[in-house]
Amino acid sequence: MDIDADEAVCSKCGERSSISEQLGHEAPVRKAMMVPDSFDLRQTPSGVSFENEGLGWRITATIRSGIGYFLFLFAIIFGIAAVLIVFVPQINAGKFDLMESLFGIPFVGASLLMGTISLFLLFGETKVEADQRDPDVGRIFVGLGSLGWSRNVRWSEVTQIEETDSGGTVNDRPIMQITLHRDQGDIHFGALLSKPRLHYVMYALTQLVTLSPVDR
Known about the structure:
Number of domains: 3
Number of helices: 4
Radius of gyration: 25 Å
Oligomer: single chain
Strand order of the largest sheet: 3-4-5-6-7
Order of helices and strands: EEHEEHHEEEEEEH
Strand content: 25-35%
Keywords: Membrane, Transmembrane, Transmembrane helix
Number of strands: 10
Shape: elongated
Structural class: alpha+beta
Helix content: 25-40%
């Protein structure tokens, strides 16, 4: 039996057959995208790191962008303005007005929400990794600290990795993302990464996941 070649040989008659057919399913056919000859896994762009851990690996890319700084400043100004307009007059007058307070709560809440989003855009990360004991076991995480979105994946189930349109736009330009194609359902991530970081993660995954050791 040769698992890598998806082949089994009957010990009695010598007939060869496909292991995947015997198990009732076909082995996924992988399509490797073209990786530029100039790409070097060890040459990471700003805001990206690559680490080897035992048999596994980890790619970490920061989400940091200029929009995060702008949104953070706007959230502070918006929140201070809401407090000064709605709550400070009540404090100075020594009188609590329920209706005015209820009117101001949504504005304070909006500033807190914008502040949270800005922190995510400033300090959030995208992590893609393979387990150090079983490199076929992978995990994708997008978030800040322990808060965020995560998805477990078997790298052997990924048939293709490519850059796709996320459906969003900025200045009439499409926002691109990384798509992992699988029979079990595609996984999309990376829409918040800058172009150099997104391309590094995509090319690195192509080398680490879809190319055979001979092709790398």
